[in-house]
Structure formats: C-alpha cells, structure tokens
Amino acid sequence: EPFVADEYIERLAWRTPGGGSRGGEAFDPKRLLEEFVNHIQELQVMDERIQRKVEKLEQQCQKEAKEFAKKVQELQKSNQVAFQHFQELDEHISYVATKVCHLGDQLEGVNTPRQRAVEAQKLMKYFNEFLDGELKSDVFTNSEKIKEAADIIQKLHLIAQELPFDSLMDFCAYPLSFPGKYHDLECQLIQEFTSAQRRGEISRMREVAAVLLHFKGYSHCVDVYIKQCQEGAFLRNDVFEDAAILCQRVNKQVGEVFSNPETVLAKLIQNIFEVKLQSYVKDQLEEHRKSDAEQYLKNLYDLYTRTTNLSSKLMEFNLGTDKQTFLSKLIKSIFISYLENYIEVEIGYLKSRSAMILQRYYDSKNHQKRSIGTGGIQDLKERIRQRTNLPLGPSIDTHGETFLSQEVVVNLLQETKQAFERCHRLSDPSDLPKNAFRIFSMLVEFLCTEHIDYALETGLAGIPSSDSKNANLYFLDVVHQANTIFHLFDKQFNDHLMPLISSSPKLSECLQKKKDIIEQMEVKLDMGIDTLNCMIGQMKHILAAEQKKTDFKPEDENNVLIQYTNACVKVCGYVRKQVEKIRNSMDGKNVDTVLMELGVRFHRLIYEHLQQYSYSCMGGMLAICDVAEYRKCAKDFKIALVLQLFDTLHALCNLLVVAPDNLKQVCSGEQLANLDKNILHSFVQLRVDYRSARLARHFS
Q: Which segments does the entry list as coiled coil (predicted)?
C-alpha cells in the first residue's frame, strides 16, 4: 500500500500506552515523546542498513554489466567468424551445384537419345509383330494392360501416318492390319468407358477418357457419355425442370471425368436443346398452329419463357468464353421458324378476338350495328336539328342503352395486355417498337373507334330535339362511361405500351395517334353538349305546363299561402338532377365549362319566362320568392358568373314590388346601376300599375 505519513503517526500513537484515550487511560505526553524518539532512532538504523544494501547491489550490478558487455563482444567476434565460414561454405556449395548441373545436362544429353532409341526399338519390335501377323507381346495379350497397349497403338498410328501412301496400302494389306487393331482397341476403350459409367466408377472413367483423348474416337466417347447421362432423366412432364436437374448433376461429375469439362457440358446442353427441347416444342406448337391461334400464342409464349429461364439457369455453369451467344443461338435454332411470323399471327388473332368480343356484346343487346355518318352533311344536319326545332330527320331511339360495356372494355384491354407481354418477350429487339405499335393500332381500332366512337355517334344520333317532351338525356351516361373507359385506355398506354417504345421513334407516332383520338372524341363530346338544348327544352315544357298567369296576379291578394310556385319547385328539382348528372359524367375543367353554359342558358330561360307575365304587388313578391329559389339552385353550379346573373335577376324582380317613389333609388343601386335602362324599363312595364301616371312619371 502507498505510504501516508499522517496515518503512520496516528497508528504509532494509538499503539503507545498513554498516547491517547484508549481504554480510559490518561494522556501521557512524555511517554509518547519517548516512544517517538525511540522509533525515530529505529528508523534511522533501518535507513542506514537499507542504504548499505543498496550500495552493495549497485556495485554488484555494475560488475555484472561489465561482464555481460565483455561476453557480448566475444559473441560478436564468434558470429563474424561463423559468418565468414558460412560465406565460404555457400560459395563451395554453389560451385558444386554448378558442376552437378553441368554433369546432369551431360547425362541427360546422353540418356535422352538412349531412351528414344530404346523406345524406337520397342516400337520397331511391336511393328514387326504386326508385319509377322502374330502379336506375342504381353501388352497386347493381357487385357489389364489395355492402357499401355493404347499408348503403343497411338504412337504406331502416328508413325503410320508418316508412311508414303503406297507403303501404307501395302501395310494395311497384311493379315493383321494395324488400322484394324487401332479401331478394335478404340472400341474396347469406349466399351470399357461405357461399363465404368454404368457402374458409376468415376476414377476408371477418368483413366479411360484420358487414354481416349489422343484417339479419333474421343468425340464418340463424349457422345456415349452424353447419351447415357440422359437415360432415365426425362421421365416427368416438365422437360425443362428435368433438363436443369440433369445439367446440374452432370456439371458436378464432368470435371472429375474429362480434361475439358466445359466442352463436354456445352455439347450435352446442345444435344438437349436440339433433340429433347426442339422435339417437345414442335409437338406442343404444331398441334395448335393452324387450328387454334389463341392456344398457339399462349404455348409459344410459355415455351419461349421457360426456355429462356432454363438458359438463365445454365448461365451459372462454365460453358466456355461466350456462353451468352452460345445459348442464344440454341434458343434461336428452336424458335426461329415460329418467331419469324409471330407478329402476323398475333395481329390476326387480336383482330378476330376483338371483333368477336364486340359482336358478342351487340348480339346480347339484340343490336344490329349500323353505319352512322361522321362528317359533312350528316354532321350539319345533326347540329341544325339539335339547335333548332326543324325536323330534319328523326333521332335514333336507343331505349336508354349507352352501348358501352365495362366488361367488353376489360376483355379488350386484357387481350391487348397479354399481346403486349407476348410482344415484349417474343419480338426481336429491333422489331419491338414496330410490333408494339401495330398492337396499339388494333386497340385503337376496336376499343376507341369500333366501341367508344360508335357509342358516341349513336348517343349523338339519339339526342332528342329541344321541343321533345319527357326526353331522356342518355348522352350524359355515354359521356360518363366513355370518360371512365378512356382513363383505363390511358393507363394501359402508360403501363404497358410506353416501356416498349420509350426509346424509339415510334414514341412520337403513338403519342400523336393518341392525341388524334382524344381530339376526335372531344369534338363529338362538344357536339353532344348540345344536350343542354334538350335540358332547356324540358324546363320550358315544365314552365309552360305548370306556370299559370294567375300565379303572379292572384284574385285574392290577401289570401296567398304559398312561398313559391309549383313550376319553380319542379324546375329547380329538374335542374339539380341535371347538375348532379353532369358532375358525375365529366371531370376536370369540362365540368365547369358545361355547367357555366347550362347556367347561362338557365338564366336566359328564367329571364325570358318572367317577362311573359304581369305582376301585382303580391304576384311580384311571389316572383321574387321564385327567383330566390332559382338563385339557391344556381349555387349548386358553383360558378361565380351564374350566381352573379341570378343575383342581378333577383334585384330586377325587386322593381316589381318597390314603391313608385323609390324606383329611381333602387335602379341606381349597386346591382342595377350598370344595366341598360331599357332592361330596367322592361321589368317596370310588367307591373300591373305601370300605366298609372304616377308610376310612369316617377320612372321617367
């Protein structure tokens, strides 16, 4: 523990009798001083003893340091001597090694020709046995030495290749023909390889394959291996999964057997594609190629997809340097005859399928699709008929049918979506934008032209004239459904067509075609907005049937119990329904545009209607109540201009009840100050008391 002087003194005093109050003893300073003096003397003696010991240890340490330094110097000298000896030994070893290498080169120079001579002598001996027609050597008669025999035959084969043609023909004419032995031995090796493969002896297969590597029949050995690998491998219905499993299994084994595993595996894959897969694809496609286009396209898409997926799995294996190109060529060799005319089959199927969907829908409605003019005189007659009361021809009665079907649209879009998916997968990258545009053109033709456009034309032809009573305005339903359908069309355009053409010149062509379709439909929708005339006509019929002259000039001025007239109630109810219908049928700025037009015409109708009657004081109050109700109805339009028009009309109606003395004051008010004086005068003239001299004088 660290030494603390204060604590040491305290402990010493505590142990000394009389040094404190321990045990009730009295404090004795003399005794404590004596103890301190004695203890100091003991410490001094201890210090001197320790100091002598330290000096002795220091002297000993210095002595040992000198001895150690001397010893280190001696070791350094010994090390220098040893290093010199090592250098001398290294030089001697280098000298000896040089002599040994030189001697080895000399021995090799002598031994190599000797070995070649011995080898040549053996080959000459074996060659003579073939010439004699009798093979006596153990290497040819012992079946266990087939590897050595193969090596000899291979060398003799190379020698025979160098013989002149005449000598080679003479040699082949001997009873024991060397080429025949070469062929027999080759067959034996292949048979041995086959047997080893069936027994699953990988090491024996590797040995035989290494021997056959230098024979012409090596490729036949590979073919046998590939053939036996496939025995029992394709027993299930899924040939693609079987092929993947087979290649996975062979990939693990082929490296243990052959010295060129990537070549053997590539040959196996080529055999699978060109034999198994091609046969399977042909069976699946040729069955439906001419009889069932839908099934043919589905099978083609499915088979091509599964083949490319298999190719992706095979990319994991080592098949050489350019395996991507290798596998692409194999896929192309299988499907090239089907992909060349794919888009023609696709367009033909899409056209017939779309036509059938539409025809089936119209048949379900018992509707015979008719030809409706879309330009020139027909448009002129239609527009004149809708804007006037001239009967230029009867409108078509659609019986409330819009001739638009969500089910039909979904079916057409689904067929086109599948066509886009097949196009993306099966088209050559260079032809993809062009093929996608052709599919899009089919969608435009059957969905936009044959279905939506036809429904709009039929809806336009079915709009009743403005003087029709109880006319049903189904065109707004057509507009609503057409708007919904076009949103679905636009979604498919963005989701499925745009990715296929986004980086090609066909993009601008598709966008222009879509723009033309939108503009064409907007023109027809604008023409159809003249259903507002029919709405105004309906309001006129309600007002003519329900409004009575006595409503605004009651016989008993003091007994009027109603707040507004029955005509006003029915007109407001009708208008509110039409406003709601317009909001449900359209979206965006179109809603405000149509409601503004309807609101302005509605105001004009009420303005002209009010000027047909004469108003008593109580009748004027009732007219004000009617206009207030009309103004409340106008608030549903949520159009500032319409509400302003009805506010002004309400202010004009005040002229029907105001006291003659206040007419000028009212006319100069904020809402009426900017109106033409003739308009103000026309309303004042509607008062029953207008002809009184007092009223005429005040107004003038």
A: 40-78
Question: Are the C-beta atoms of 695 and 660 separated by less than 8 Å?
Answer: yes
> And the tokens for 575?
């208008």
- pLDDT exceeding 70 applies to what percent of the chain? 79
CA dist., res. 482 & res. 517, Å (int): 12
pLDDT score recorded for residue 247? 87
Write out the DSSP string of 174-197: SSS-HHHHHHHHHHHHHHHHHHHH
Per residue in 376-389, pLDDT (tens digit) is: 434 544 544 444 44
Contacting residues for 378 by C-beta, under 8 A, at least 6 apart? 372
CB-facing half-sphere around the CA of 457: CA atoms within 13 A:
17
Report the distance separating Cα 686 and Cα 552, nearest Å.
Answer: 11
SS3 (DSSP) at 351: helix
Contact 396, 461 (CB under 8 A): yes
User: Is the predicted pLDDT of residue 15 greater than 60, yes or no?
Assistant: yes
Assigned token pair, 197: 């493969």
Q: Report the chain's terminal Cα–Cα distance, integer Å.
A: 126
Place of tokens 């499915």: 302
Q: Which residue has the higher pLDDT, 135 or 605?
A: 605
Confidence band of 156 (pLDDT split at 50, 70, 90)? low
Helix crossing, 640-653 with 589-610: angle to 10°?
10
Q: Which amino acid is at 680?
A: L
User: How much of the chain is helix, strand and coil, in % rounded to 5?
Assistant: 75, 0, 25
Give the mean pLDDT of 211-231: 77
Whole-number Å distance between alpha carbons of 614 and 604: 18
Q: How far apart are CA 167 and CA 372, in angstroms?
A: 95
Please give the Cα distance from 529 to 476 (Å, whole number). Answer: 8
- pLDDT tens-digit readout, 469-521: 555 566 777 777 888 888 899 999 999 999 999 888 899 999 999 899 888 88
Q: What is the DSSP letter of 389?
A: S
Top-ranked range on mean pLDDT: pick from 200-209, 549-558, 589-598: 589-598
Tokens linked to 236? 């299930």
According to DSSP H, which parts of 133-174 are helical?
Answer: 138-141, 146-161, 165-172
